[in-house]
Amino acid sequence: MEKTKILLVDDQPDQLIILKHALQASDRILFEATSGPKALDLIRKHTFALVVMDVMMPEMNGFETFAAMQQIESGQKTPVMFLTADQTDEAMARSYELGAADCLHKPVTLPILQSKVQVFIDVFRQKKQLELANWELKATQAQLIQSAKLASLGEMATGIAHELNQPLMVINLNAELGLDDLQEGLDTNVKESLETIVAQVRRASRVINHLKAFGRDNTKSEYQPEDVNQIILDSFILIRERLKLRNIRLEEHLAATLPLVSCKAVQIEQVLANILLNAMDALEERDEKIIRVRSFQEGNWVNVEIEDNGVGIPQVIQNRIFDPFFTTKEVGRGTGLGLSVSYGIVQEHSGCLLVHSEPGKGTNFIIKLPLEHV
Ligand SMILES: Nc1ncnc2c1ncn2[C@@H]1O[C@H](COP(=O)(O)OP(=O)(O)OP(=O)(O)O)[C@@H](O)[C@H]1O
Ligand SMILES: [Mg+2]
C-alpha cells in the first residue's frame, strides 16, 4: 500500500521532534516544515492526508498559512489540524471559523493527537478508495457504452451494406453506359454519366465517414452545442435502408428550428439508434408498419419523440425495460443493453428518457434534453 503523507509545521524544532516521535508509523511518511512558506512549498509538491500546524509562528502564522493554502488546488482539499498555545475558547472558535478540520490545545495530549490523526488518515484512505472505485466504474460504463454501440452497428450491418450497394450499382450502370457511348463514338451522355458517378461516390463516402465517426470510441468526447435535428437525420443514415427493406414507413416531423443543445452528438445518436432498432423489432408482425419521429422544443427542453405502432410493452415489464440485460428477445438476438445504456447516456446529459406504451397498439419513447446543461 502507498504510504500516507502527513505534514507537520512548527517553528520550534523540539516541538517537531515530539510530534514526529508521536506520529511515526510504518505506513506513513512524515514531512516537516519550520515555517509557513516552507510548508506551502511542500503542499504544492505533495498530496497530504493531513497538515498538523502550529498557530503561533513568526513570519507567517498558522492562520495566514492556512489562508494561503486555499489558493493552492491540492491545499484546498487538505484538512488542517491547528495546535494552539492560546488556551481561550475564542482561539478554538477562530480556527473552526476559518475552516480548520480540528484544533488542539498545546501542550497536546499525545494519545488524543494520535487517535485523531488516525481518524484523518482512515478518512483519507477511504476517500482515495472511493475515488478509485468511481473511476473504475466510469471506465466500465464507457466500455459498456462502446460495446453496446458496436453491437447495434452489427445489427445495422445489413442496412449499411445495402446503403453502400445502392450507389455502387448506380456507379456501375453509369460507367457501362458511358463506356458504350464512347465506343459508339457518342459523347453526348458521357458527362451526365460521370456526374451521376461523382454524386454517388459522394453519397457512399458520406455513409462510410458517418460509419467511422459513429463507430469510434468517443465516450471521452466533449459536450458541444449541437442541432438535434441534424443528429436525428444522421441516425437515419445507417438505418433508412433497413427500414425500406422491412417496409417500414418513416415519418419525420422535425421542428423547423431548434435551439442548439449541449451534448455528445454520437452518444445521442446511439440512443436514437437503439430506440429505432427496438421499434423496428416491435413492428415485425404488423401489416402496416410506421415509425414516427418528432422533434420539438418544450420550455427549456428539446424533445425527440419516437413512436411505433408495434406490439407494445406489457404493463408488467414496463418498469424493467431499462434494467441492464433485460430482454424479451431470443438468445443471440438481444443483449438487453440497448435501453439501459441509452438511459445512462440521457441521464448523463441531465435529461430524461420516458416511455409510454399501450400493449397491442404501440410504444412511444421521449428523449428530453435540457437547454441549459448543468
Ligand atoms: N418499441 C418497443 N416496443 C415493444 N417492446 C419494446 C420496445 N422497446 C423496447 N422494448 C422491450 O424492452 C426490452 C429491452 O430493450 P433493450 O433495447 O434494452 O434490449 P433488447 O432490444 O432486447 O436488446 P439489445 O441490447 O440488442 O438492444 C426489449 O427486449 C423489448 O421487450
Ligand atoms: Mg434494443
Essential attributes:
single chain, 374 residues, alpha/beta, Rossmann fold, Heat Shock Protein 90, 5-stranded parallel β-sheet, 5-stranded mixed β-sheet, 11 helices, binds adenosine-5'-triphosphate, binds magnesium ion
How does this structure look, described?
This protein is an alpha/beta fold. It has two domains: 4-108, Rossmann fold, CATH 3.40.50; 144-370, Histidine kinase-like ATPase, C-terminal domain (Heat Shock Protein 90), CATH 3.30.565.10. Helix content is 50%, strand content 20%. Strand 9 and strand 10 form a beta hairpin. It is elongated. The two termini are 37 Å apart. The mean pLDDT is 92. It binds adenosine-5'-triphosphate and magnesium ion. Residues 274, 278-279, 282, 308, 310-313, 321, 326-329, 334-340, 363 line the site of adenosine-5'-triphosphate.
Topology readout:
Elements: E1 4-9, H1 13-23, E2 28-33, H2 36-45, E3 50-54, H3 62-69, H4 73-76, E4 80-84, H5 89-98, E5 102-105, H6 110-183, H7 190-215, E6 224-226, H8 228-237, H9 240-245, E7 248-254, E8 261-263, H10 265-282, E9 289-298, E10 301-308, H11 338-348, E11 352-358, E12 362-370
Parallel strand pairs: 1-2, 1-3, 3-4, 4-5, 7-9
Antiparallel strand pairs: 6-8, 9-10, 10-12, 11-12
This protein binds adenosine-5'-triphosphate and magnesium ion.
Adenosine-5'-triphosphate (ATP) is lined by residues 274, 278-279, 282, 308, 310-313, 321, 326-329, 334-340, 363.
Radius of gyration: 32 Å
Biggest sheet strand order reads 2-1-3-4-5
Terminal CA distance:
37 Å
Helix content: 40-55%
Helical/strand content category: alpha/beta
The CATH topology annotation of the largest domain reads as Heat Shock Protein 90
Q: Uncertain segments of ≥5 residues (pLDDT<50)?
A: none
Q: How many separate domains?
A: 2
CATH level-4 homologous superfamily of the largest domain: Histidine kinase-like ATPase, C-terminal domain
What are the distinct ligands in this entry?
Answer: adenosine-5'-triphosphate, magnesium ion
Question: What's the mean pLDDT score?
Answer: 92
- Coarse shape: elongated
Strand count:
12
Beta-strand content estimate: 15-25%
**N to C succession of SSEs:** EHEHEHHEHEHHEHHEEHEEHEE
Can you identify the CATH class of the largest domain? Alpha Beta
